[in-house]
Amino acid sequence: MLQGTHAPQAVQPAVRLKITEIFHSIQGEGLTAGVPTAFVRLTGCPLRCGYCDTAYAFSGGEYLELAAIMAQVGGFGASHVTVTGGEPLAQAGCLDLLTGLCDAGYQVSLETSGALDVAEVDRRVVLVLDLKTPASGECARNRYANVEHLKPGDQVKFVLADRADYDWAVATAARYRLGERATVLLSPVHGALEAARLADWMLADRLSYRLQLQLHKLLWGEVPGR
After folding, report:
1. Ranges of the chain with pLDDT below 50
2. Closest by Cα among 128, 93, 99 to 114
3. CB within 8 A of 54, min separation 6: which ones?
């Protein structure tokens, strides 16, 4: 090599993610329920929960570069962004997206099944860890090592289809001391478990967890992108 010259630097490929939809709506769940939020729904999921309400995100979608995703999100003028799926962490580029959104000043949350490792998720991101209950059919996929990565402000969600799910969730939350690590959310499966019944169970057991309803479904039903 001639003195004073340098080997060419490898060009890093642009980060691309497969996207089902990007939309602006009212946050329907968690501690920011009711807040206008930009949603980025990634395509694909390795799980097949029996009560899944976003099966349309399993396939299809469109590849978008990170800059294009950021541009669409920026057009909504929202301060909150939720990255969801499917299972967003199934795509390696999700980590770059999360960090990019945080760097841009957004308040970012990640809705993840808890079946995939969250250790590398940017610590500025609010984790919404959805531990799968027996009725989901995917309970064995829960990665309990993720509990160690929970931090104040994070949330652990249990979606409950029946009393057996409820009893399992209460026992699991106690076993892993989830109430001391994060906010625990108990959410009835829409159309399967009456919210009032779940509320009665929680009151009878003197639980300090939070009952969660899907506000977006109360507003718009099952319409995708709302």
Report:
1. 1-8, 11
2. 128
3. 41, 84, 85, 86, 224
For the whole model, what pTM was predicted?
0.91
Where are the extended beta strands (E) located within the chain?
A: 16-26, 36-42, 62-65, 80-84, 107-112, 126-131, 155-160, 183-188, 210-211
Q: What is the DSSP string of 26-60?
A: E--SGGGTTSEEEEEEE---S---TT-S-GGGSS-
For the record, the structure tokens of 115 come out as: 């079946």
From start to end of 87-191, where are the E strands?
107-112, 126-131, 155-160, 183-188
* CA–CA–CA angle 41, 35, 180 (5° rounding): 85
- 8 A C-beta contact, residue 167 and residue 142: no
Helix orientation angle between 66-74 and 94-103, rounded to the nearest 10 degrees: 40
A 10 A CB-CB count for 182 gives 22
State how far the Cα of 96 lies from the Cα of 17, in Å rounded to an integer.
10
Residues 166 and 186: beta-carbon distance below 8 Å: yes
In this structure, which amino acid lies at residue 27?
A: Q
CA–CA dist 118, 109 (Å, integer): 13
- The pLDDT of residue 7: 46
